[in-house]
Every structure is written in structure tokens, then in C-alpha cells.
Amino acid sequence: MVWQKLGSTTLGSAASSITVSSLASSPFLKLEVFSPTGGSTSMLQYLRLNGDTGTSYAWNYERNGVDADPDSASGSTEGVFIGGANMAYGVYTTVYISNNIATKEKLVTGKQVADESSTGANGAVAYANFVGKWIGSAVITSVTVRSSTGGGSDFPSGAEVTVYGSDETITLPLLSNGAIFEESDTGKHYMFDGTDTWNEVT
Fold first, then answer.
1. How many Cα atoms sit within 13 Å of 184 on the Cβ side?
2. Which of 95, 122, 158, 190 would you call most buried, defined as having the most Cβ atoms within 10 angstroms of its Cβ?
């Protein structure tokens, strides 16, 4: 899948949320969320779409695999839960949104990695997996990654959200009538009929 950058926001000072708006329409979206060293030591992150604060979200979340504290919610007003971790030493989250089509439910999936105890090779690393959906009937034009606590310094300066889009269009090469293909394992030759069929050449 080929991704094209649609927008990005980098905080110049600490804040409780990061918004990327005026996004071009795209049926598939990818978000990269990065928070450097210096964030809140305890923060719950949510993804809110098009500024919707209604009961439009559902999600399921698991942390550290079998040792996780699994959690879920339906009819949430907070947004899709994308991670809760010690943000003091850096956190990276990747979010994928599919079915970004008007009147369709938007499906969300992703992963988060957090350097929880310190920077460097000796720091404990936590990971999380999450899925969710947004039932809004409009195409997504803005995304907000936010802290549920609303703490003004939860995201440190330099925290960033970048949004990419893809239409998953695949362009196949045009083959002319009479094109020949050799099967490597059998040595057989096939000729293209110019439409949709390969006929063995005998």
C-alpha cells in the first residue's frame, strides 16, 4: 500500500491534545503518534475523530499480551482508547483507519510501544494492541489525539501526529495480445489473448 502524507502537527509547547485538520478525503488512513521524553507519567490517550464528542466510539484494548489488563468500552464519548502508559520516556503509536467512507462505520486498529522506566537499552518496554470503531457518518477530515485527564502538560513540546492516506489503487501493467510468459518450473510457454486468458503454446 502506498501512503501519501496528508498533514502533520507538532507541538511547540506542552498541551493536552494534538489535532491534525483539513485532511483530504482518503478511504484508508494511517496515523503516527510520537511523544518524546518529558510527557505525563500517567496518561490515557484517546483518538477523537472530526471532533465528535457523542457516544460514537467503541474499543477493545490489551497491554503486554497475556499479562495485559484487557479493557473495552462501547458508546464511549472519550474516543477510541489507543494507550495508557508512562509517557515520561517516550511513546510511539501507529493507528490504521479503514472504511473511511461516508455512511460507513470507520474501523480502527493499532499498536503502541512505550519506554516506561528510563531511556536507553536498560529501560523496560511496554506494548499494547487496540481495535475500535467510530460510527460517524461523515468522511474523516480531522483527528485529535487527546489525554482524558485534560492536563495541560500531558504531551510535551515536540509531540507530533502525522496522518497519511491511501486509496489502495493498484495499477497493473498493460499486456498486449501475443505477450508470452514462460513458467520457470515447467518450462511451458503461455500466450496472452489480449483480454484475460493465457493459453498454453504447444
1. 0
2. 95
Q: What is the pLDDT of residues 20-76, one digit of tens each?
A: 999 999 999 999 999 988 777 777 889 999 999 999 999 999 888 755 555 788 888
In sequence order, the 6+-apart residues with CB closer than 8 A to the CB of 6 are 20, 23, 24, 26, 29, 163, 164, 165
pTM: 0.78
E strand or H helix that includes residue 31: strand 28-37
Give the C-alpha separation, 168 to 143, whole Å: 21
Q: What is the DSSP string of 51-85?
A: T--SS-EEEEEEESGGG---EEEEEESS-EEEEEE
Among 34, 29, 63, smallest CA distance to 49 is for: 29
